[in-house]
Request: fold
Amino acid sequence: MGSSGGWRTNKWVRAAIPALLLHCSIGTVYCWSIFSQEIADHIGFSKGATEWAFSFAIFFLGMSAAFLGNIVEKDIHKSSLIATICFSVGMAGTGFFIWWGGNHPGNALALIGIYICYGFIMGIGLGTGYLSPVKTLMLWFSDRKGLATGLAVAGFGAAKAIASPIMQSMLNSMKETGGIYKMFWILACVYFVMMFVGHLLLAKPADWHEPQNDAEKPKIMDVLKTKPITNYIGIWVMFYINITCGLALISQEKMIVKCVGLAAFAGIISTISAIFNAGGRLGFSAWADTMKDRNTVYKMIFILSIVFTGLVMLTQGIKNGEGNGLLVALVICLIMVVNAGYGGGFPNVPALLSDHYGMGSISAIHGITLSAWAFAGLTGNQVATYIVNHSGEWIDHDGVKMNPVGYQNVLFFTIALYIVALVLCMVLVKPTDKKSA
Reply:
């Protein structure tokens, strides 16, 4: 795409930059932990009650991607505009209901409004915004599909690391004047502009013919049946397991770090783990481009996760780590490996699906597959919290209540699932030569 066609035929301007503008905006959904306690205090509800807003956002991300995948397939301009409007309106609406809750503490309308705005409306923006640039990237970067999708999805992962300090500083500077809801209103405007520019720039290559006629386009089930249906089931389940295990450990990460005596470095470790998460999205997907069968990268992710989880289980690193440099290093390695593998699973899914089922219906198939993310969003955190609350023993550690045995027990759950995922990866998902796909 040389200079003769100018910016209109430049793959960076028409695919990579708009993808980053969209994904760096919607990825800030993961900043929820920065302000969740403050929202709870402001509207007069428990942190547990407000936490459901985030779970709903991830659930509706997956479900809107599943149900609106066909719209993305037919018209990325319509889908990216829906994403821009829903995400920014949902964010502004969340700010409104936080303001309302501050004036009417304990009023259920504020909580329900936040569920609807942050969970449902923003969730639709997340799903359509996540999907819209993916196929476009793979069309422009046809020889490096994994790297292209990895670039965008790394933007989604890096958004938390970029936006967290900005949000924290906004909250601190506006604390006396209702900073929490004003922050949402300001960011709604900023993200609307970023996403709208991305929407205007995003375009498929001029030589790509997208069938508009429903009769011309094959049915999704017909496409999936071109391979044994167990092949697709294997991809869906291993994607679900990778996210569930990642969320289970990441949701307890802060307390695990405190458990092994690194409370003073919790913020630094959180930033490093976010970098590993984003790096895994870019690194594993770029690596997969060099492999004959892209599924090999999932085998690597699951084997690494099983090895490090097993080592921390055998040594009881979380329980016995404090004061033992080797065990602390093992626990930190586990956190980084799981973060990298969790991130690396996302960009490889659309590329793996295109290797198996071609590019024709990739947005719709990828959308249906993202329903795995929806269900993982409802199970990963919750199962880990249940295990911690119903096993082990709570102790007082420098004034902080923690449950080292409970956190250790979460690893029994994750290693069992990682083993299942590895077996599925080897048995159900058939090898494919992506060069012929």
About this structure: The radius of gyration is 22 Å.
